[in-house]
Amino acid sequence: MNKRKYLVGIAAASALALGLSGCAGDRSGGDGGDDASGALVGVSMPSQQLERWIADGNNVQAELEELGYQVDLQYAADDTATQISQLENMITSGAKALIIASIDGTTLTSVLEQAAAQDIPVIAYDRLILGSENVDYYTTFDNFQVGVQQATSLLTGLGVLDESGEDTGEAGPFNIELFAGSPDDNNATFFWDGARSVLDPYIESGVLTVPSGQLDFEQAATPGWLAENAQDRMENLLTIIGDTKLDAVLSPNDGLASGIIAALSSGGYAGDIPVITGQDADVGGVKAIIAGEQYSTIFKDTRLLGAQAVEMVDALLNGEEPEVNDTETYDNGTKVVPSFLLESQVVTIDNYEEVLIDGGYYEPSDLE
Ligand code: BGC
What are residue 208's DSSP bridge partners? Predict the structure, then answer.
């Protein structure tokens, strides 16, 4: 018996033993572990508006092709109807597995029923797909921890915490404003909750003050993750808070940080930008860090995420069980989706060269 058939046998036996009927273990591209080589895999990414999704798409495609798969990679221009029709086309074209970074996690129920009817396994990529039982696995970064890292770096930037995360005794009070991501993206609440878990004790003790009083997720949210929406809100906040001087702004990603910085620059803070956080280590974000306009970003290595998603697909198409490391956190309203979470890293002016350049993510010339 060859190794793959042996593993398939073990997976089938353990699925039976655990009584896992109807779970992901019985969906293996409809081939029941037959030779998966050359199978078509559909990869659906939200948009090309942020660099990270382009890097994600390229990485996933390259990894799949290396294993001999054919790839249909589509970007949906941040439009849910486009994403649904692209997925329908992938199913019609004979895709044997789908990797999906959803735009709005709640809109895919019906197209995923079509996938399920053909035993096509579905991997939710970076963003959880909500309200559907037909999502088999999820791979992402530890999104709550991303929020914790953002808030921790904001406090480090203010001098409230030192480099090792110890409280310095600095009492402030510091004026900060808070931004959240798009409400239709499940990740946005995880980033927000993670950040608030760190910031709230300091807000309660008076070390931090939010002069606008806008402390609710709904008030802080940025529809569509659009930088211009963050810029508009930052301009409004500056009007609301009048002469109060801001010391820091919690931004949930680099794209929104650019809108926030634009509003601050034209609103009296040029050359004296407050501490601003980010996420994604976009070229624009890292350049803003080098220029001293943005304090930090969170690096999420899309190469690792792409490799993880591809490993999951390859396992499923070969009748094996993908590896997971979290079976509790990501409840999509219908089921808890078994997940593999990766770790993220805070990047500032102090370590961007080591992490991003020495780590091979960027060439020095990318950041010039
Ligand atoms: C991703 C972030 C990204 C944001 C906007 C989130 O779901 O996790 O990396 O910045 O979407 O595209």
Answer: 174
Atom of ligand 1 nearest to the CA of 185: 7
Structure tokens at 300: 């999420």
Which of the 8 DSSP states describes residue 328? S
As a 3-state breakdown, the chain gives helix, strand, coil percent values, each rounded to 5, of 45, 15, 40
Atom 5 in ligand 1: residue holding the nearest Cα? 225
In the chain, domain spans: 3-141+301-343, 143-279
Q: Judge if the beta carbon of residue 196 lies within 6 A of ligand 1.
A: no
Residues 90-114: b if buried by 16+ CB within 10 A, e if exposed: bbeeebbbbbbbbbbbebbeebbee
Q: How many CA atoms lie within 13 A of 317 on its CB side?
A: 25
The 10s digit of each residue's pLDDT in 86-125 is 999 999 999 999 999 999 999 999 999 999 999 999 999 9
Structure tokens at 351: 């370590």
Model's pTM, two decimal places?
0.89
**Cα of 13 to ligand 1 centre, how many Å?**
38
Q: Show Cβ contacts of residue 56 under 8 Å, excluding neighbours closer than 6 positions.
A: 45, 101, 125, 126, 302, 305, 306
Residue 300 CA to residue 120 CA, distance in Å, equals 28
pLDDT tens-digit series, residues 114-152:
999 999 999 999 999 999 999 999 999 999 999 999 999
Closest-CA residue, ligand 1 atom 9, reads 280
For residue 46, report the distance from its CA to the centre of ligand 1, in Å: 10
Ligand 1 geometric centre to CA of 114 (Å): 27
For residue 293 and ligand 1, the question of a CB distance below 6 A is answered with no
Q: Say how many Å lie between the CA of residue 170 and the centre of ligand 1.
A: 32
- What topology is assigned to 143-279 in CATH? Rossmann fold (3.40.50)
The two tokens of residue 105 are 């996690």
Atom of ligand 1 minimally distant from the CA of 53:
12
CB atoms within 10 A of CB 199: 25
CATH code for the domain defined by 3-141+301-343: 3.40.50.2300
DSSP assignments along 247-298, one per residue = -EEE-SSHHHHHHHHHHHIIIIITT---EE--SS--HHHHHHHHTTS---EE
